UniProtKB/TrEMBL annotation:
Originating species: Microcella alkaliphila
Pfam families reported for this sequence: Metallophos
Superkingdom: Bacteria
Protein name: Metallophosphoesterase
Gene Ontology molecular functions: hydrolase activity
Ranges annotated as spanning the membrane: none
Domain Calcineurin-like phosphoesterase: start-end pairs: 15-167
Length: 268
């Protein structure tokens, strides 16, 4: 069972983070090449709409807008595409920084501007590979110490994580993490095909179904190797046979839905 809310990454065309619309100091703090808020807002909208089509799906990993929120979120209604927002610490719908009452108050503003608000950490699959996405990396910050640690993914267990928050200007990948913020990607959303290509380079990351099938086979092998006393044999065999049958049925279902089964996948 997934630890985080499940999301369909297969539907996503672009991913981004840290737009910071109307943030008065972001050009200074993140060394952006804009001389005014108005110039930055206009350029962010222009680059977004030159990249994203009206029918495209965009996943935004937080800190979409600051300043007078009615005005700044209103600007984002001009952005193309169907837009999902994983809240960051500067968003007025962030559980990390806002009260429940504040979130309930501000959520309608985001929704009216075309945003679908998601949980702080989401998990799903893309082309059969498991992915996590959050505003926050496992570790790291734009400041000296890590903030909002209880709102981050709990630990790096090898699942690729997409994130923003750091405002790092270096491009993308760092181990199992990929920074998608606009400061690293030309102030525009990043095509998800870039993420697809990166995931395929991670040698220790396997498609989710292959992992599930291998682990189920290991369970069956352990059951086969388990020794029991004579007094427990009858009860053990009854439970064992039921469990083995259920696992075999599960494996058959998984294998039939797997587009490219690896070699020996169906071998016991």
């Amino acid at each position: 069972m997934s630890e985080y809310s499940w999301f369909d990454f297969d539907q996503v065309d672009f991913v981004t983070a840290d737009s910071h619309f109307s943030h008065a100091r972001i050009s200074e703090l993140a060394e952006r090449p804009f001389t005014s808020i108005e110039e930055m807002n206009a350029e962010l909208i222009r680059r977004w709409n030159e990249t994203v089509g009206p029918s495209d799906v965009v996943l935004h990993l937080g800190d979409v807008a600051l300043g007078p929120i009615e005005e700044s979120i209103g600007l984002t209604a001009h952005l193309n595409g169907r837009r999902y927002l994983v809240p960051g610490n500067h968003d007025r719908v962030s559980p990390a920084t806002q009260s429940k009452n504040a979130i309930e108050r501000f959520a309608p503003l985001y929704e009216a501007a075309g945003w679908t608000i998601l949980p702080e950490v989401i998990e799903g699959t893309r082309g059969g590979y498991r992915i996590l996405a959050s505003h926050y990396p496992y570790k790291g910050d734009s400041q000296e110490s890590d903030r909002h640690t209880t709102h981050r993914p709990r630990w790096d267990d090898g699942i690729p994580l997409l994130h923003g928050h750091t405002h790092a200007r270096d491009h993308g990948p760092n181990g199992h993490e990929f920074h998608v913020g606009v400061d690293a990607h030309g102030y525009a959303p990043l095509p998800f095909t870039v993420i697809d290509a990166w995931i395929r380079t991670l040698r220790d990351v396997e498609p989710w179904l292959e992992v599930a099938i291998r682990e189920a086979r290991e369970v069956i092998a352990d059951l086969d190797a388990t020794e029991t006393s004579n007094s427990d044999t009858m009860f053990y065999l009854m439970g064992y046979n039921e469990l083995r049958t259920a696992l075999e049925e599960l494996l058959s279902a998984l294998e039939s839905s797997h587009p490219n089964p690896p070699p020996n996948l169906t071998q016991g």
